[in-house]
């Protein structure tokens, strides 16, 4: 069952807006396993008096769904973001099923794929000053590393919309990093103790 945490910045969250968001986000709940409890964190922000930015993050036990959209109309932005989340889920489900089809016969549905993903948090670029001596860390985040292989790490990175992803390699148990290169390919940084 989804709970909602709706925050707004320069946008009024009327009962109609809240009801519309909840009704739309509830549509993706059908992809979750029965009895799943999650909180949909919804951030609304008015930009330049003409656009609204909507961001929805749904952290689950071992998976984070996240998307954001900007649009002139709040309701249109919500519709577009729900489409993005559904595409993420379908893409993820297809890849997981394909990967494990041989290993587990019929394959794994999205609901049982929690074992092969990890909860991750945003990493933000905050480096704006060219003076190396004046580096200031403006945000610190912590997350638990879950064992997975490189393909699963790339999949999770793409679902989150990040350029890199830190994970524990399931075979070597070392902390590794996958990243997206400028040419659209992927790179892997392997660490060793």
TrEMBL record:
Q: What Gene Ontology terms describe what this protein does at the molecular function level?
A: ribosomal small subunit binding
- Tell me, in one coarse class, where this protein mainly resides: cytoplasm
Query: Can the keyword Phosphoprotein be found in this entry's annotation?
Result: no
**Alphabetized UniProt keyword annotations:** Cytoplasm, Translation regulation
Presence of keyword Cytoplasm:
yes
One GO CC term on file: cytosolic small ribosomal subunit
**CDD domains linked to this entry:** RaiA (cd00552)
What residues does the Sigma 54 modulation/S30EA ribosomal protein C-terminal domain cover?
133-188
Q: Name one GO biological process term.
A: negative regulation of translational elongation
What does the UniProt entry say about where the protein is found? Cytoplasm
HAMAP family per the UniProt record, alphabetical:
HPF (MF_00839)
Q: How does it assemble?
A: Interacts with 100S ribosomes.
Function, as annotated, reads: Required for dimerization of active 70S ribosomes into 100S ribosomes in stationary phase; 100S ribosomes are translationally inactive and sometimes present during exponential growth.
Q: What is this protein called?
A: Ribosome hibernation promoting factor
Q: What is the organism field in this record?
A: Planococcus massiliensis
Q: What is the lineage of its organism?
A: Bacteria, Bacillati, Bacillota, Bacilli, Bacillales
Q: Which gene encodes it?
A: yvyD
């Amino acid at each position: 069952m989804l709970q909602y945490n709706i925050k707004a910045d320069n946008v009024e969250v009327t009962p109609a807006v809240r009801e519309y968001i909840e009704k739309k986000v509830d549509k993706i709940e059908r992809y979750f396993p029965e009895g799943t409890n999650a909180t949909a964190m919804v951030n609304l922000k008015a930009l330049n008096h003409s656009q609204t930015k909507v961001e929805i993050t749904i952290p689950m036990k071992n998976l984070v769904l996240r998307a954001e959209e900007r649009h002139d109309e709040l309701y249109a932005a919500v519709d577009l973001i729900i489409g993005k989340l559904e595409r993420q889920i379908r893409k993820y489900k297809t890849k997981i099923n394909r990967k494990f089809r041989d290993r587990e016969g019929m394959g794994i549905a999205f609901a049982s794929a929690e074992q092969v993903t990890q909860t991750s948090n945003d990493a933000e670029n905050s480096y704006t000053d060219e003076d190396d001596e004046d580096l200031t860390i403006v945000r610190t985040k912590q997350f638990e590393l879950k064992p997975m292989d490189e393909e699963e790490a790339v999949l999770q990175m793409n679902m989150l919309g990040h350029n890199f992803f830190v994970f524990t390699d399931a075979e070597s148990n070392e902390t590794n990093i996958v990243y997206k290169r400028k040419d659209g390919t992927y790179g892997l940084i392997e660490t060793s103790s």
